Amino acid sequence: KGEFYSSVDSMQDLAQVEQELLNATRSYLETQQQQLDFYRRYVEQIKREHEWATAQLKLDEYLGHPLHAFRLIKRLVQDWDAIIFEPILTNKPREDFRQFIEILTRDLGYPDQSELQGVIKGLARLQRVYNLTTTDLADGIINDLHYDSELEWRECYEIGVQLFDLGEYQRSLEWLQAAYELLRNAIAENNDKIQYLSDIREYAAMANFELGNPKRAGRLLNQILDPEPTHSAQQTRKYFENREPGKNIAEKNPSWFANYTRLCQGKRLPEESSGSPLKCYLDGKRHAYFTLAPLQVEPVHLDPDINVYHGMLNSKQIYSIFVEADKEEMVRSAVSGEGGKRTVRDLRVSQQTWLNYESPVMKSVSRIIQFVSGFDMAGAEYMQVANYGVGGQYEPHPDYFEVNLPENFKGDRISTSMFYLSDVEEGGYTVFTNLNVFLPPVKGAMVMWHNLHRSLDVDVRTLHAGCPVIVGSKRIGNIWMHSGYQEFRRPCNLTSDSYKSLAYRDSV
Ligand SMILES: O=C(O)CCC(=O)C(=O)O
Ligand SMILES: [Fe+2]
Fold it and tell me: Of all protein residues, whose CA lies closest to atom 9 belonging to ligand 1?
């Protein structure tokens, strides 16, 4: 079983796991309770018999009676063993419970430590891209919207600890601070949690040390050790004494980062608008297929041209696509790494599968692509259906290969047609970092652009990204068309027009 946090769909399996755990644990507790009641009744009964015996006669007189002697010996030889020892020591309900858990987690899967890291990295990514403050997030507030879920001090503490382990010391400190405040409020009501303050302080000390604040780190340790000199924070103090504190170097963001975050937040630069204002129009001429239901075209950029075609798939068709995708296994998305190798990295957090064009719904998809793009489907890769988890994203990248072209196709990816298969409650925009364009996902719409110039050189300006999903489940379907089959469809231009995008080279 694969990973859970990288897609909302697979998170649903986990919800089922927990539901099963809940049911199994409740019935286990009930069975155990009945067993305990049974033991207790037996013990009470024997106790009464002892009391009765001692109340009546002297014990030796009582045991001198043959039936009494028989009863005591029978109890010790048989009853204690059958009624108490055996069932308590074998504990069948516990054994059944253990087996059930084993089978359940084998069949449905179970998350491990790396999943916890993954989801916490996702939270930190949302904070970074959308400027969400730690206190707001802990209070369940995202972009001024109040979601009905607040974190407890333990949860904030766990996030702080994990971020520390990931080396995100500044962010870690914020979460530890939030945990500290929440715990202090809790202690005001109930004093028995006071020792946990020291745990938080110790981590805060370590984060401060790594951030180049050894003095503050030392003060925090003193707060722990002055009242309690034997606390394990002594070890941490020794550790600091033998080590250079970290240096507070501000993390250097990649060159695209500022544009990425701005556009992900739905902010355009006004001065950089793409010439004449772009208006939506209806196109009934492109193909006879669209005469009765003209294409609703929303041009979003002119050179290179990016168009959104609305209402290309209805809910029923989208549902059928999911049915097809469900037959395949979704896997964590990889990206092309060094030397064309596929690797799983945080720059792309989603799960995906590939669909051919044989099912009825995929035949319609194929027709749509053909009619809108004018391209020959011989050059089309299968449709890649992807599902992002919360915090899931795809950092800026081009869709063309340029080098290490796949061998099973002729030419590079001349165009991208991307269907939005869901709406997204918050976040998850598609952005073109060099073109000042952001697109909120609209279910049923398709966005299309060319990744290559007419000269078939790569168009660097098409660098784009899928922003982190804040709330919701984002699903898309990508179809990439290769240039080798389109000689008659998009005649290439012998004079190179790639000078247009040369200036953007560095941003890739
Ligand atoms: O998720 C998005 O909006 C963009 C996805 C994308 O660029 C890709 O899958 O190549
Ligand atoms: Fe892409």
Answer: 478
Three-state SS string across 461-491, please?
Answer: HHCEEECCEEECCEEEEEEEEEHHHCCCCCC
Contact 324, 359 (CB under 8 A): yes
CA of 393 to the centre of ligand 2 (A): 11
| Cross-strand bridge partners of residue 448 | 307, 417
Band (pLDDT 50/70/90 cuts) for residue 486 is confident
pLDDT at 1 (0 to 100):
53
Cα 376 to chain centroid distance, Å, stands at: 37
Lowest-pLDDT range, 231-235, 275-279, 353-357?
275-279
- Between the alpha carbon of residue 258 and those of residues 133, 248, 461, the distances in Å are 18, 21, 16
Query: Which among 449, 478, 479, 508 is the best mutation to test ligand 1's pocket, defined by most ligand atoms within 8 Å of the CB?
Result: 478
Q: Residue written as tokens 């193909």? A: 287
DSSP string of 130-158, one letter each residue: HT--HHHHHTTEETTEE-S----HHHHHH
Q: Could you tell me what percent of the chain has a pLDDT over 70?
A: 97
* Residue 123 DSSP SS3: helix
Task: Provide DSSP, 208-229.
Answer: HHHTT-HHHHHHHHHHHHTT-T
DSSP string for residues in 23-91: HHHHHHHHHHHHHHHHHHHHHHHHHHHHHHHHHHS-HHHHHTSHHHHHHHHHIIIIIIIIIIIHHHHH-
Task: Provide the token pair at 255.
Answer: 């060159």
Distance 467 CA to ligand 1 centre (A): 9
Which ipTM was obtained for this model? 0.99
Tell me, what's the pLDDT at 339?
66
